[in-house]
Prior knowledge:
- The protein has helices at residues 12-34, 36-46, 51-54, 56-79, 81-97, 99-105, 108-135, 142-168, 178-208, 227-230, 233-261, 263-267, 270-280, 289-315, 320-340, 343-357, 360-369, 376-385, 389-404, 411-429.
- The protein is mainly alpha-helical.
- Helix 2 packs antiparallel against helix 9.
- It is globular and about 55 Å long.
- 53% of the residues are buried.
Amino acid sequence: MAGNSTGRAQTAPQTAPMAGLVVSLFFTWGFITVLNDPLIARLKGLFALNYAEAMLTQFAFFLGYFIFSAPAGAILGRFGYVRSISLGLVIMAVGGLLFAPAAQLASYPMFLFALFCVASGITILQVAANPYIAVLGSAASAASRLTLAQAFNALGTFIGPFIGALFILQNGVGAATAGARIQQAQLVQRPFLVIAGLLLLFALVFWFLRNQPGPAASAASPNPFRAVLLRRPRLAFGVACIFLYVGAEVSIGSGLTNYLMQPGILGLRAPAIGAGFAHAFHLHAQFNTAQVAGAMVSIYWGLAMLGRFAGAFTLARLSPGRVLAIHAIAALILALAASLSAGPAAAAAVLAIGLANSIMFPTIFTLALEGLGEETANGSALLCMAIVGGAIIPVAFGATADAIGLGHALIVPAGCYLIIAAYGWLAARGLGIKFA
């Protein structure tokens, strides 16, 4: 049995440093996940991809979540929390290192495989770190630790696009000739190689701490495919909504850089925006259109972060179903507005969807699990598997963008939000989705 799986009680001085390390993991995977947003824009130009082909980046990434969710639970039960975290960090680092041969070969499939490995490692991290932070300390402060961890995750998603835009998009998103493709691909690899090195150091820290006494991990792997679960309409509808929500959120984030770069949106204004930013922070630098557009994706994720804090206040006073319906309808209206308008108004509308998104995932999750009792762990596993929507919906979004244009393709996430609004309304009214 893993050394960190002993059941000895811990004192605050022992748990506090470990809790701090685990909280930092939430920042890490949030930061790395949203690097896909500028990366998609760069790979699209580098390999002359259409939108559907470019969205295979998210397909490969979120496929890793789907495939490794169940094995990650088995790994946690076998090796315990700390060893599983260390393994997840190593797998993520291997994925980052695979960017080197992908760049050297200028191979898009190799980039996709590297991202699949990164996501597989993140899945193990999430399966281990989420319950670990909850049990690492007193039960009374578990909610506080989880809230703090999620705040750091949101901070990572806020900072990631900005940093990614500065480095990944430094040469714009234009197509590269066959001769220059390897050189341009090597610029893409550099941030991921640096991250891989940091992840390996992080993995070593956890490995050295593997024998620290700590709470035991359950050896039982959830079975999300039990018939008793699949017959619950409230849970089944919730699973569908998690699938749609993650797909909509990822589709918008993935397409934002290219959307904002369009001449009719911010493309012609981007150099002035970049110059204003440089002047405000006394930077002697010039930012190209792609960097400005990519950096503005941080606003989308930053609004989601702020919305979670405001949502905590709202959800304490209103029905969760009603709040979910209001946010989903707001996202629907904003997506349609961005689809049908142009200029700064369209940019503001699409970025504001981040604020509307803020409370959707945790609220859907909570509503779907309500009343499950002993089946809560299995229901949670089923909901986590629905994150594969981040692999499927963006490809449909990309294919729609190829057919009718990137702006009009926002009808795809708009349709997702319409169904989510219906779920929230039904939950608030108690109609049609009771457990009985």
